[in-house]
Amino acid sequence: MLHAFDTYSKWMQHFTSPPIKWCLKSRKFLFTVRPRKNFLWYFHTFVGLGFCSAGGAVVILLSQIFDSYPPLTVAHIFLLVVVLCTAGTGFAINLGMILYGRECVEGWNVLLEMHAKLQRRGGRHPPSKKSLVWRILPAFVWALSSYPFVFSLAAIFFKLDPPYHILAILNITHPLPHIFRFYIVCTIPAELCRLLAFIALFSISTPILLRDTLILLIRENSTPVAAIVGRISCTRAISQYRQVQIVMLSMEEFLGYSCFFVQALALLNSILYNFVSLKFYATLPIWFYAIFPSMAVMTLVIIHVLMPGLHVVLDNSKKLL
Q1: pTM for the full predicted model
Q2: Which of these, 92, 120, 145, 316, could form a disulfide with 11 (CB 3.0-4.6 Å)?
Q3: Would you call 20 helix, strand, or coil by DSSP?
Q4: 239 Cα distance to chain centroid
Q5: How buried is residue 26: exposed, middle or buried, by Cβ count under 10 Å (0-12/13-18/19+)?
Q6: Whole domain around residue 150: which residue ranges?
Q7: pLDDT tens for each residue of 240-271
């Protein structure tokens, strides 16, 4: 598991410093909200994602409704709506990271430390070591680190970014706004891909880490000595379980906040894909539909990884109590 986070830190924690950052030396998450240190990240969040991407997409879509800009193709309008949904979700999750990130990071680090102590006392490897999930996730992070180059080149070549159309509407020819447009096109996809990698790693690692911690607690309290002590007094197992509960409650706000917006993004994009497919099937190019199997495969992988872990958490909680 830690190797996947090390890969994330090596390939995706560059140029800007997000509030939640993985530290290679201490091998844990750090939370810092300092305007000077996180200036570029704040700039990309509020100006890049919020104002230029989401706000620009809204302006362009309104210009299409009121016929104040030359009509765009259906594919362009579709991609602008996707940009609006994705940029809005990224902005909301980054805002939640500022509001709820500190408690979540502290809880995750405590859970990781508890898991490491139980593993050292038990002398056994956790079940996640044998899983293929942590072998696949570093490749997933590496792939996401290469996507920004493709997205940036496609946006520049096909003129898919909202700032280009905003400059065209305002008829701005000065080189400085166009240089700023290239900067936004090159940095915002990198921020979104890094956010997606972080959310995937964090949301997948949390239930698996919780599952492994409960399994180690069950093993520790199922030894003969622990069984004798447990018959006399059951406070030890209950106190350990309560500690895990407190840790999860500290992580609840950020995880719930992120899951809400990610699920809303998936729902909106799914409805949009179905509507566009039925309404404009004959007008869109064939390559446009490559997104469908990609989204389906990603959804199946996430469900296959998360759902068994969540079921095991409930079963192990009952066994421990």
Answers
A1: 0.82
A2: 145
A3: strand
A4: 32
A5: exposed
A6: 2-320
A7: 777 888 888 888 888 888 888 887 887 777 77
